[in-house]
Design brief:
Elements (H helix, E strand, L loop, with lengths): L24 E4 L17 E8 L6 E6 L1 H6 L2 H10 L5 E5 L3 E3 L23 H8 L13 H14 L4 E9 L3 E12 L12 E6 L2 E6 L4 E2 L3 H16 L25 H28 L3 H31 L4 H25 L1 H19 L2 H23 L1 H35 L7
Antiparallel strand pairs: 1-2, 1-5, 2-3, 3-4, 6-7, 6-10, 7-8, 8-9
Helix pairs in contact: 3-5, 6-8, 6-10, 6-11, 7-8, 9-10, 10-11
């Protein structure tokens, strides 16, 4: 019986005979142009073959240029290689462009007409070059005092004031947050410096403050956003001499999208919020099943607090939505506020009707939390957990069978609701990842 051929062990790729071998000295035939830059002739360039590829017909060779060639290379070629991330000291060429090098001196061809490629509006480096009136063959200048002044004049002419932006801020409790601000004007260039760059005046918490322009992310008008992104990219990556090791900002990409969580992160979130929901439902279900008036109080609390937070979310939702590039901020904020308010209000209403158990539990839990954590967070968490445990104890004291039934039903519903909230959050992230067009509105 014939053996089956393993996957990946098909017919080998064909190879073609090579005229030269690794270690041979070769030179480029006269009239040969560089494959990447057609206005740069390579005639007379000489070197040694370090690699060869016989999969193409004819084969191609990687040539390491000798010192005589490197000394004669035109400066514009070096600049272009640095700009495009190409190696100056070697190049891949085809066999038809090469001939054997006998060692005799050869004239290195030089370009007669340099033709710079047009600036590309879609290239961030080229957009910055346009600010300074440079061609594509020029390297980006350093962010020194003179160049900052020139960039200031450009932005002052092209930015539309006022405009919305966000300021990344670090907080003790929540880590990194984005604070909405309004940029009203650029400060004069004489008030700027090479360390902070261009400065601007913004309205932050009803106060006028001065901030470096490069720390802001513009929102709203796409023209303003691109201008700020280009400036921040240039200032962070081409610092003035003396600040090369302490650039104030990391390299930035334009308009980053939210990262979707991994499957492991999703599973952990489902388990965590399912557990929280089960605990919530456990307490609420037992109280509704055993405490007189708890269902009515829970409905009243859900309606009242849900309405209050719905109004609040409708008012402040557009701010949060603008920061994260989400449309219909008022509608989404109102919905989320109503959902949170209803959940909290229902539990609070039921706990109030079970005050005989929740009050002692809240006092004991608050004291224990204060002792263990020794801060306001510990006190608040202790009061909340103590009230829940006290209410749960009261429910089982009054009717163990009914409390057990209500607790099991509530725990199941709560766990499912917690998992659904996680899945809804993931769905929102996917919408953001697909809806880049929202951010341009």
């Amino acid at each position: 019986m014939p053996r089956k051929k393993k996957r990946g062990q098909g017919k080998p790729e064909p190879t073609f005979p090579a005229r030269f071998a690794v270690g041979d000295r070769v030179r480029v035939k006269p009239g040969t142009a560089d494959p990447n830059f057609k206005d740069i002739p390579l005639g007379g360039w000489a070197g040694t073959i370090s690699e060869l590829d016989r999969r193409s017909n004819p084969p191609t060779y990687l040539i390491e240029w000798n010192q005589h060639t490197l000394d004669q290379i035109h400066p514009i070629f070096r600049t272009r290689c640095e700009r495009d991330g190409l190696d100056v000291e070697s190049a891949w060429l085809g066999e038809a462009d090469l001939e054997a090098d006998g060692g005799e001196p050869a004239a290195i061809e030089q370009p007669t007409t340099i033709v710079a490629r047009p600036l590309r509006p879609g290239d961030q480096d080229d957009r910055v070059r346009a600010v300074f009136g440079l061609s594509s063959d020029d390297l980006l200048p350093a962010a020194d005092e003179d160049n900052l002044r020139r960039y200031h004049d450009y932005l002052a002419t092209h930015l539309s004031f006022p405009f919305r932006a966000v300021l990344p801020m670090v907080t003790d409790r929540f880590g990194r947050t984005m604070q909405p601000v309004t940029v009203v004007e650029l400060l004069p260039p004489e008030e700027c410096d090479e360390e902070a760059g261009l400065l601007c005046k913004v309205h932050l918490w009803d106060e006028a403050v001065e901030l470096p322009l490069a720390v802001l992310d513009a929102k709203g008008h796409p023209g303003n956003r691109r201008l700020i992104d280009d400036y921040s990219y240039w200032f962070a990556n081409w610092p003035a001499e003396g600040f090369a090791d302490t650039a104030p900002l990391p390299p930035r990409s334009v308009d980053p999208l939210p990262d979707l969580p991994s499957w492991w992160a999703v599973l952990k979130a489902l388990a965590r919020y399912g557990f929280y929901g089960a605990g919530y439902g456990l307490v609420l279900g037992s109280l509704l099943a055993t405490v007189w008036g708890a269902p009515t109080a829970a409905v009243a609390g859900a309606v009242i607090l849900g309405f209050i937070l719905c109004v609040t979310g409708t008012r402040y939702g557009p701010i949060t939505a603008a920061v994260n590039g989400i449309p219909n901020g008022a509608l989404l904020g109102g919905f989320v506020g109503a959902l949170i308010g209803a959940a909290v209000g229902a539990l609070v209403g039921a706990l109030v009707m079970a005050v005989v158990g929740t009050l002692p539990g809240a006092i004991a839990g608050g004291l224990l939390g204060k002792i263990l954590r020794r801060n306001s967070d510990g006190l608040g968490m202790g009061i909340l957990l103590g009230a829940a445990v006290g209410g749960l104890g009261l429910a089982f004291f009054r009717d163990q069978v009914a409390a057990t039934s209500g607790a099991l039903q509530g725990a199941g519903v709560g766990a499912g609701a917690g998992a659904m909230l996680v899945l809804a959050g993931i769905g929102l992230l996917k919408l953001l990842a697909r809806g880049r067009g929202w951010r341009e509105e």
